Amino acid sequence: MNKVKIVSNPYEKKVIFERWSDQFNSWVTIDQDTNANSKLISNEFQSGFFPFKVYEIVNQIIAEYSVPDEKLLISFSGSDDEFQELENLLFDTKFENIELEKTENYLENARDVLPEINNIFKKLDPLITKNIEDESGEIQQQLKRFSDASNDIVPICVLGTYSAGKSTFINSLIGCELLPSAETPVTAKVYKLSSTNQKDRASVRFTFKGEEVRIQVRADKLVFDSLEVEDELIDSINLAIHEEKVSSIIEKVHIILEELNDYSDSEIGDLIEIEIPFGRSTLDEVNYQIAIFDTPGSNSSTNLQHSDVLDKSMKGMSNGLPIFVTDSSSMDSTDNDNLKDKLKKVSGLDSRFTMIVVNKAESADINLRKFQKESFRNKIMNQSIPRELYAQGIFYVSSILGLGSKLNGELQGEFYSELYDTYKAKYSDASNDYYKRLFDFNIVPPQMKQSMIKSAEVNQNCIYANSGLLTIEDAIKNFVIKYSHYDKCQQARETLNRLIVITDKEIDEKNVDLSGRKLELQNKLDDKKASTLATIDERISKERGGHTTRYPEEMASFIKSLTQSLKKENVESLYSNYYEKYSQEYPEIVVEASHDGTNLLRKLKGQFNEAVQQFKSSEERRRKIEEKASV
User: Fold this and answer.
1) Chain centroid to CA 29: how far?
2) pLDDT for residue 483 is more than 60
3) How far apart are CA 327 and CA 332, in angstroms?
């Protein structure tokens, strides 16, 4: 039985393949040396995100390594989420000759790893901040990047061709008519939309004439921060709200954005940030904050400038989901040939997950019978946008029908209301001759297609499901919950690696500084030690000279005084005193000693003279020794 191992690392965006060798009794990597003709070594299979490539990968393994009437073992090493995708695929009877096993070596799912990374970071942050000096601010910058990369914000970037309906598509995602939209191009800025839990509060932030401005939108009033009362912008906004007689939070923000859109680029900054309660959005069901970015068309004259604005506004974010919106007539637009390179330049986006959304599909000339033909699907995949951007799928959608289904058909404006009324029967009545389910046209990996169809078919809101919006929102939620964390973890790892390099450099510089300081102090200590020893030697020499000079004179004086104190009369007087004293107390001893008194005195004198002679002899010897020593 042949055995093939799939080793997937979604953190490093890498997949490699191995085959079992009976000759070596071990796994051998499939590469240029071991199997140069294998398609498994191509970039197509090794660099994509495994769950989106699993169907093609398994079929290629079967083509290269299966033997008729024999089982083929596929061993998998990777994350549990990826293994489940492989397991779900192999339930198909088409793969009944495949045996599947999970190796002992596996990777934790990123959604389980990221909280642990955050816990470690919380412990490291104070240690680094407290112990490492950061005069340049680079460490703090990296710490902030790590914090931003590992947070719970997931950016969704909506890009696409001019007038493809990006704003309407975003409105359908959040479930309210917020962004200005029309058949003519209206988006001249980059919008950043974030959801807020306060249902009666919203805010709009932007730069106006070089000043940062915030408009707080409340149910009863607007609060203008950093704008003068007499400023014409305040008057135009208040007048528009009064004339349109709007009252809801959503409607007021919509009017504000329309007014800002009319101002020149020199007056209004390129980025407008909006915090608003998403009306009827299933995206609120995930436990992560979603930030949606809306950009001008990729083939607009201002797109290059706004790509830079998007890149700057996403600084610190990670794992961004790119959604490219087009329509069926623009799929082969040559204006988008370089879009993939643009996407890669935006550091927070992960192009492996790019979704292609074909909008305005309610009026497109699409036929399911044709779509089911592989040759027709191949023609679509060879068009410019799919060829450059296809990753996790092509999704067909009617944003107007999707939004109308969430708002119970109560759309603002005659144009969208008329479109909704025109097409709603076609997407809600199965007996209609032109009945369509747009999710049937989606071009996605086979194992994903079945789950999408099942989810759409059981949904009670028929127009919502058939508009294609449901499957798009499910794909977005799946990305946010399962896959967004891989890029977060990887960016957190890269940031930590940069942080380690910076701190190692700081430590090395400190070590060099401390070594230099140590050498400096050592030299000072050696100098002080030498100076002290020289002072001590000088003092010793001086003291020795003084004592040597005074020695003979002092000894002569001492001998003289000693001689005087031991003169005969002094000794006899001393003897008489002691004789008189002790003769009374000890008569028998004194009488005996008196017979030898004269001899005692003589003996004392003799001993003294002998002592003097010995001293003189020793003095002579010392003098000779010193003379020899001086030579």
Assistant:
1) 32
2) yes
3) 10
pLDDT digits over 360-403, tens only? 999 888 888 888 888 888 899 988 888 888 888 999 999 999 99
Residue 440 has pLDDT above 90, yes or no: yes
Cβ(271)–Cβ(194) below 8 Å: no
User: How many Å is the maximal CA-CA distance in the chain?
Assistant: 166
The predicted structure's pLDDT at residue 377: 87
* CA dihedral for 367, 368, 373, 377, sign (positive or negative): positive
Interaxial angle between packed helices 597-630 and 484-565, expressed in degrees from 0 to 180 and rounded to the nearest 10: 130
Q: What residues have CB less than 8 Å from 441, skipping those under 6 apart?
A: 361, 366, 368, 371, 396, 468
Distance CA 459, CA 361 (A): 20
Cβ-contact 272, 205 below 8 angstroms:
yes
CA 253 to chain CA mean position, Å: 34
pLDDT exceeds cutoff 50 at 276: yes
Q: How far is CA 460 from CA 207, 333, 412, 452, 631, in A?
A: 44, 37, 24, 15, 121
pTM: 0.73
Q: Which two tokens stand for residue 626?
A: 């010193």
Question: By C-alpha distance, which of 303, 348, 351 is closest to 323?
Answer: 351
Q: Give the mean pLDDT of the chain.
A: 81
Task: Provide the pLDDT for residue 565.
Answer: 61
Q: What one-character-per-residue DSSP string does 324-375 give? A: EEEEGGGTT-GGGTTHHHHHHHSTTB-GGGPEEEEE-GGGS---HHHHTSHH
Name the nearest CA neighbour of 304 among 357, 255, 272, 346. 346
Band (301; pLDDT cuts 50, 70, 90): very low
d(CA 217, CA 253): 7
Predicted confidence band of residue 420 (pLDDT cuts 50, 70, 90): very high
pLDDT class of 457 with cuts at 50, 70, 90? very high
CB atoms within 10 A of CB 276: 23
Q: In angstroms, rounded to a whole number, what is the distance separating the alpha carbons of residues 16 and 463?
A: 43
In sequence order, what are the residues at sequence separation of 6 or more whose Cβ sits closer than 8 angstroms to the Cβ of residue 306? 189, 190, 270, 295, 296
Model confidence band, residue 277 (pLDDT cutoffs 50, 70, 90): confident
Q: How many CB atoms lie within 10 A of CB 109?
A: 19
Distance from C-alpha of 436 to C-alpha of 428, rounded to nearest angstrom = 8
- Helix (H, G, I), strand (E, B), or coil: what is residue 104? coil
| Predicted pLDDT of residue 305 | 53
> Strand pairing of 321-327 and 153-160?
parallel
- Label residue 184 by pLDDT band (50, 70, 90): very low
CB 576 within 8 A of CB 594: no
Within 8 A by CB and 6+ apart from 256, the residues are 204, 215, 217, 237
Instruction: Compute the distance between CA of residue 138 and CA of residue 159 in angstroms, rounded to an integer.
Output: 33
Which string of b and e fits 476-497 if b means at least 16 CB within 10 Å? bbbbbbbbbbbbbbbbbeebbe
Please state the φ and ψ torsions of residue 208, each to the nearest 5 degrees: -125, 115
The arithmetic mean of pLDDT across residues 560-566, rounded, is 67
> Which pLDDT does position 335 carry in this prediction?
64
Hey, which residues does 292 pair with through a beta bridge? 156, 193
Residue for token pair 């107007």: 400
